[in-house]
Structures are given as structure tokens and as C-alpha cells.
Write a structure and sequence with these properties.
With 432 residues, the protein is of the alpha/beta class. Helices cover 45% and strands 8% of the residues.
Amino acid sequence: MKTPITIFWFRRDLRLEDNAGLYHALNNVTPVLALFIFDKNILDKLSEDDARVTFIFQTIESLKKELQQYGSDLLVKYGTPEKIWPQILKDYKVEEVYTNHDYEPYARERDDNLAEFLTSEEIAFRTFKDQVIFEKDEILKGDKTPYTVFTPYYKQWQAKLDDFYFKAYPTKKYFKNLFQTEHLVLPSLKEMGFKASSQEFPKINYKNKLDDYAEQRDFPAMESTTRIGLHLRFGTVSIRKAVKDAVEAKSNVWLSELAWREFYMMILWHFPYAAYDSFKKQYDKIKWRNNETEFKAWCEGNTGYPIVDAGMRQLNETGFMHNRVRMVVASFLSKHLLIDWRWGENYFAEKLLDYEMASNVGGWQWAAGSGNDAAPYFRVFNPELQTKRFDPKFEYIKKWVPEYGTKKYAQPIVEHTFARERVLKVFKEALS
Ligand code: FAD
């Protein structure tokens, strides 16, 4: 006779402590077996040396070890969820399935399909808010429609925030309810078609950055941002803990950045079309030049604009780019070069360790002017002025573009004043 169990399915919440769905699962009567699926639908689109897969793999290895200490284990599968789930129901007597909400279009479809399948098998499917403080319809305008502008959204977000919302879920107390099992196999990276990456991943040590964050965050050479993005993306840190730490450190600017993340997730939830189309639809009438040679020069950091090139090279070498520079390179691609923001969005999606669909699409549409809360299109970033303000001693530039200032450095790919006039003309034509 098989023991009836509850399954908790990990996705982008890869931690045992303070995990909403896991906590609720453990509070159930039936013992809990945790599951992770290396999803072929997602993995098949990635290159074999994608460092994020190594990060996930290492995290899964440590989750397995932790669970084994409690006599349980992590069930790890490789395949598509639609094929894996029927197989799990054959192998185990599953009574209920618990998981945390995921707001991206693919994830919504996946979870809707699973809900339908589990219902047909008479298995309960319970899902919880975990990766944000406020989700979906929790922050709405007076007329019950979603905010599309950050400032009033954030006002309400802050007004609603109290200790209740960032209290940790005490999962540990209930680990005795984990399903006891022998050790289960872990498919290797090689079997899944990936190479182990030697990329260094940022550690979770953001607290020492919070005091000076407001003054220093805009200067890329200072490396004073927290690098928590990757951990929030995969849930190796709890958003409740991050928000609590921000409140305790009175780091209001950092707190507002965490709210930007939620704002974009809320936007993606309400306007899923904006993942692929311009939020302001008339922006899809723009006649992009989409010159492939220029796109390549941008990707490789050879535009002759040192701040742009430094950013792209930082991205290519480390999987990270400073926020201020992300804005500059995104504006440069979409405005100076008149290349469709989706090309840049895709390139970032391939390269960023902290890639997160809602924030990436939000950031790109903001820079291109097509987004919900974007600067007006006629505001075109001037890379030289940005350098003067944010890298006045050229420290960041010299770190990433060592040949800057020598004859070896590329000539500007396009002249600034010419490019500015050209984009204003093309945007005006499309938008009038
Ligand atoms: P910190 O400055 O220490 O901030 C802490 C956290 O707050 C970040 O990790 C992130 O979760 C959140 N945050 C900060 N700024 C923003 C913002 N403007 N919008 C949304 N959330 C924010 N962020 C991503 O997490 N993933 C992306 O794919 C992404 N793509 C971007 C693309 C463009 C074109 C632009 C302009 C911005 C993008 N951002 C993205 C936002 C921001 O650049 C990064 O979150 C930040 O640089 C990550 O560094 P950090 O972890 O040191 O952040």
C-alpha cells in the first residue's frame, strides 16, 4: 500500500525557510514530498553553457541535502510538466498538490493546465502568494482598475505595508511532516544537455549595502547595489525578509526598488500582452531600422560610445549590468540605433543572471518610451552627459573598456545629434 502524500512543487521559490506554499503544505495531515522539475519547455530554449542552469542545479543540490537531513528528499524530474505529472501520479498516491503563484504568461498557462488535469484526477491543487508582498488585485485604484503609474501605486503599497505582510512563515517547526524516503536520484547537468558554468554567483549579503544605497546606487563604478536580483528571481531569498530588512534599516530608496519589482509583476499580470507587444500600442507602428551590423556592435560593446560599451561588456563577462547603465544602453539601442526594443530585451534575457521577465520588459519599454510609465519619447538619453554625471572619472569605463582613449577604440557608430533628430522624426511619424 502506498502512503498518501502531499506534493509541494518548487519553481521560483528555491528555499525551505519562509516559503508560503511549503508552510501550508506542511500544515496538512498527509506527509509532504517536495518536487522540482527541470522543465524542458524552458530549458530547450537555453544555450548549453547558460550559467543560470548551473545556479539552479547547485541550489537544487543543497535543497536535497537539507531535506535529506530531515529524513526526506527532493524529487527531481527532467522533462515537460505535462508528461511528468501523470508519471508522478502513477508512482505516488498523491492527495494534494501545493505550489506558489507565478505570474508570467507561460507559467499561468502551465498552472491552468495542471489545475485542470489534477481536478480530473480528483486531486486538490492549492496555490499561494509567495514571491511578492502584494499581488494581482491587492493594490488597485479607487475605481478598481490597476495602477499603470508607479508613484501613486507605491503610495498605496507603502500605506498598506505593515508587519503582518512581512512576517516569515515558520516552516521549520513543521519539518516533522516531511515525507520520509530513501535518497532519490538527481539527473546530472550533462544528462540534461548543459555544461557546468564557472561563473561566480553573487552571495546573499545585502545588509551592509543598505545604509549608503540612496547616495551611491547610481554610480556604476562603486558597485554599491545589492546584487540580490538573482536570488529574488529564483527565490533563494525571501521577499518578506528583504522588505523587513529594508524597513528596519530605514532604507526607503531600496524599499521602493523592491516595490518597482512588484509593480512590474502586477503590470504583467494585468496586461500579459505587454510581454511581447508595446504597452502603448501605437508604438508598434514605429519603423525600426533593425540594422543587424549595428545590433552586433551593440551586443559586443563596440559602438564607440564608452558608457554603452562598458555596460555591454560587463553584461557579456559577468551576467550583470548596473541599473543606470541598463537604462543608457537600452535607450541607445532603441533610440540612437532605432532597433526594436524586443531585440534588446531578448539579448538581456539570454545574458542576465537576474533576468526577470516583468522587470526586463518593464525596463525596456520604459527606455523605448512604449511602456506604461515611461519618460516621454522626446527625452533621449545623452550618453556623454550620463557619463559626466555618473562616471565622471571614467572608472567604470576604464574597467570594462581598457582600450578606451587609445587608437584601438572604435569610432562612434552614429553621431549623437543626428541620431537624436532621426529618432524624434521617426517616433513622431508613428505616434501622430
Ligand atoms: P538593487 O539596486 O540592489 O535593487 C534591489 C532589487 O530591487 C533588485 O534586485 C530588483 O529585484 C529590484 N529592482 C531594483 N531596481 C528595479 C527596477 N528598476 N525595476 C524593477 N525591479 C527593480 N531587474 C531584474 O530583476 N531583472 C531584469 O531582467 C531586469 N532588466 C532590466 C532591463 C532594463 C532595460 C532596465 C533599465 C532595468 C532592468 N532591471 C531588471 C531593473 C534593475 O536594473 C535591476 O533590478 C538591478 O540592476 C539589479 O541589481 P541589484 O540586484 O544590485 O539591485
